[in-house]
Amino acid sequence: MSCCPMMTKKIFGLFKLLQNEITVRKKRFTEGDGSYASYCRNSGEIVPQILVIIRNYSAFAEQFEALDERLIQITRECSKYGIYFLVTANAANTIRYRAAQNFAGVYALQLNDTSDYIGLFSGTGGVYPSRIKGRGIFKTDRVYEFQAAHFAQDASQKALRDFVAELNRPNVPKAGPVPVLPERITTALFQESFSAASVPVGVEKASLHTAAWDFDKSVISLILSHDMSELSAVTSGVIEQLSRLDGKITVLDGSELLDKSPDMGFEYLKTDFAGRAEALFQEMVRRNNTYKQAVAKGGPVESYSPEYFVITGLQTILASLSDQGKDEVNTLMEKAELHYNIRFVLCESAKAMSEFVGTAWYKRHISGSEGIWVGDGIADQYTLKIGKLTSSLYSELPPHFGYLVKRGKTILVKLIVGSRCEGEMEE
Q1: Which of 234, 244, 253 shows the shortest CA–CA distance to 186?
Q2: d(CA 280, CA 329)
Q3: Do 323 and 260 touch, CB atoms closer than 8 A?
Q4: Rg of the chain (C-alpha set)
Q5: Would you state the pLDDT for residue 261?
Q6: Is residue 344 a contact partner of residue 307, using CB atoms and an 8 Å limit?
Q7: What is the value of pTM for the model shown?
């Protein structure tokens, strides 16, 4: 049996979903005896039951051996919470003993030998299924023979396809999709609007929740990596997300990480930074003066339009400026206040960023325990302070994975990439 990578992810995701659902229902059904039936009876609320069908257990166990223990754990208690499994097998004793113990109901269709029925039911009292298609036996107080129903008069492949098509009609209730980590994360995945305080930048690997970053709480945000080349696709994705906010986006691409496109919805510069730096300095001075004057007079403070400056290769940019230009850039980054509504997103290698640790703007605006890290190598750097280094942080990561670091705690995330970035796909 073979299974495509996405289907494998969905099956593992299904078992994770079931485990989470059992945990949720355990907390929810605390009243009464804690069971599904008791909760629905006492609360008057009907919680949907869940039926999981595993067709051909032996093939499943061979392909997903890692899920065998989870299947045993889930089936041990799931029925109490309204979650049920229907498992088929091609022969008696195919289902492993530890798993079979969790199934109270056994239904046998046509088996190879009468001894198989006796082994399954510990004796049949002389009752065996007639040699008729769909006939079988099961045991309650004693063994009974039954006739399975057909889904259609004509049990052909065409009838089966028609039956499935009927179930797939839009107005037929369906189970929700199994959450899986997408093959590729772009802006298209995040359809809902968002604010600068919660910009989606990826999906958390463990929980599959949206990973968001607050670009509003700090004047300067960091996107770092061990290798600058790994930053290109992720930086493009972040820029596309920022472009969906109200405000102006300016990209100063000193490292030439990004490919300029004619339909870019933002200002883009990879050379001649002096003029833009001077204009920004003057705008910062204006916002500073009008703010202080308003505060001094006790009048209303001007609401400044948001501006976001995404900067790569800050060292290169500074080197291209005059001494006065360097001083102005360092001053405006140091003196910037949150209410000026100007934000800087610095995209650098950890080594390059470490050279700014002693600057006044770094000391004032960067805690060192907050940032986005792209790729592996997070355990081998000191720019971002990690509260606890675990063995997993030394592991090699697939393309476009990284970490959100919040107060020194790391969250493994598959990061957003630009919609035009081909990039490597995860194997």
Answers
A1: 234
A2: 9
A3: no
A4: 30
A5: 65
A6: no
A7: 0.77
Neighbours of 329 (CB within 10 A): 22
pLDDT of residue 238: 96
Identify residue 141 by its one-letter amino acid code.
D
Phi, psi values for residue 201, rounded to 5°: -125, 10
Which residue stretches of the chain have pLDDT < 70?
1-3, 260-264, 422-427
Q: 3-state class of 408 per DSSP?
A: coil
d(CA 50, CA 111): 29
Q: Kindly give, in sequence order, each residue whose CB lies less than 8 Å from that of residue 184, ignoring residues fewer than 6 positions away.
A: 417, 423, 425
Q: Are 121 and 143 in contact (CB under 8 A)?
A: yes
Q: What is the C-alpha to C-alpha distance for residues 260 and 244, in angstroms, rounded to an integer? A: 18
pLDDT in tens, 46-61: 999 999 999 999 999 9
Position 346 scores a pLDDT of 97
> Which of 329, 328, 377 is CA-nearest to residue 349?
377
- CB 407 within 8 Å of CB 393: no
Written as six digits, the tokens of 137 are: 């036996």
| Dihedral angle, C-alpha 222, 225, 226, 228, nearest 10 ° | -110
Residues 6+ apart with CB under 8 A from 109: 129, 134, 135, 136, 148
pLDDT tens, position by position, 106-132: 999 999 889 999 989 989 999 999 999
- With beta carbons less than 8 A apart as the criterion, state whether 234 and 402 touch: yes
The number of residues making up the chain comes to: 427
d(CA 152, CA 95): 29
